[in-house]
Amino acid sequence: xxxxxxxxxxxxxxxxxxxxxxxxxxxxxxxxxxxxxxxxxxxxxxxxxxxxxxxxxxxxxxxxxxxxxxxxxxxx
Length: 76
Hints:
SH3 type barrels; 1 helix; 5 strands; 5-stranded antiparallel beta sheet; 11% helix; mainly beta
């Protein structure tokens, strides 16, 4: 009985990390987000003139401005 009460008191904790890499693309004069960072090239998402683009760019064609890490903890 006592052990069952202790088990009910325990809660399940789910931890999720989200990482965002914000970049500046000088040729397009826009900011974007890296979706997949590679050794020589990366997949980058950005908006320009009302259109959404997902392109593969050489890593030398953009500058990393900031890396944001968001940690989300959810308890049941």
